[in-house]
């Protein structure tokens, strides 16, 4: 089905468009729904020339090495655009994208998007800003895998998702809104499942992890210190 004009207007890169421009784009959009665990695209797939935007839910982006080990590159949330090669590259999916929850993905035809960019070049700048931020995050991830200790990467992971996805107060402590199973954290920061369990035990005075992936920060200042590279006392 097509997106509504209101749904298109909520996409960040289209924030500067007027009603007429939004309606023109809306005519060339499609919304596809995926159930939790369903694959949106496989690494190596040829993907249609479209802009892909996540309307609701969350997606996991992962690559698989020749030896079969999966590494989670990032998690996408509402409003995120993805599958850059469909717009700017060779049209081959660089990673496997899987629905972590039930999701809705909006696609916009490339030619229609290019026409909108010709009328409003700010759209292109917004797209470039998003992909530039992704490159910076990738650089930081690679640098961390090469030079940072695993416990620092874990602390940064917790801190990042606490800031980006929000927290709530539970028993005078900071609880992350999103839940993360051990395997997802391990594959995101380049360690084994067993090492992830061991590191959480080491962080126990400052971070609580309970069944179902619930993470509670007991000492926010200490978490920030560890994320900055300080040793645990």
Folded structure, characterized:
The protein is of the alpha+beta class and 233 residues long. Helices cover 41% and strands 25% of the residues. A four-stranded antiparallel β-sheet has the order 1-8-3-6. A four-stranded antiparallel β-sheet has the order 2-7-4-5. It is elongated and about 55 Å long. 25% of the residues are buried. The mean pLDDT is 88.
Descriptive keywords:
alpha+beta, 233 residues, four-stranded antiparallel beta sheet
Residue share in helix: 40-55%
Spatial arrangement of strands, main beta sheet: 1-8-3-6
Binned strand content: 15-25%
The CA-CA distance between the termini, in Å, is: 56 Å
Rg over CA atoms, rounded to whole Å, is 19 Å
Report the average pLDDT across residues. 88
C-alpha geometry: elongated
Number of helices: 9
Give a count of the beta strands, DSSP E runs of length 2 or more. 12
Assign the structural class, choosing from mainly alpha, mainly beta, alpha/beta, alpha+beta, or little secondary structure: alpha+beta
**Contiguous runs where pLDDT drops below 50 for at least 5 residues:** none
Order of SSEs: HHEEEEEEHEEHHHEEHHEEH
């Amino acid at each position: 089905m097509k997106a509504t004009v209101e749904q298109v207007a909520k996409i960040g890169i289209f924030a500067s468009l007027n009603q007429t421009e939004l309606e023109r784009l809306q005519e060339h959009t499609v919304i596809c729904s995926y159930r939790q665990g369903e694959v949106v695209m496989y690494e190596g797939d040829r993907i249609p020339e479209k802009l892909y935007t996540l309307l609701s839910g969350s997606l996991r982006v992962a690559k698989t090495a020749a030896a079969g080990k999966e590494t989670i590159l990032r998690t996408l949330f509402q409003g995120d655009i993805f599958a850059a090669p469909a717009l700017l590259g060779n049209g081959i999916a660089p990673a496997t994208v899987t629905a972590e929850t039930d999701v809705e993905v909006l696609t916009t035809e490339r030619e229609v998007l290019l026409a909108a960019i010709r009328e409003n070049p700010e759209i292109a700048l917004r797209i470039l800003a998003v992909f530039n931020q992704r490159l910076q995050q990738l650089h930081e991830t690679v640098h961390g895998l090469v030079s940072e200790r695993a416990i620092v990467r874990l602390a940064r992971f917790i801190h990042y998702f606490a800031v980006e996805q929000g927290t709530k107060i539970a028993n005078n402590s900071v609880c992350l809104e999103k839940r993360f199973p051990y395997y997802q954290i391990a594959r995101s920061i380049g360690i084994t499942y067993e090492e992830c369990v061991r590191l959480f035990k080491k962080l126990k005075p400052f971070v609580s992890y309970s069944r179902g992936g619930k993470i509670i920060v007991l000492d926010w200042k200490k978490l920030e210190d560890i994320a900055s590279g300080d040793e645990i006392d």
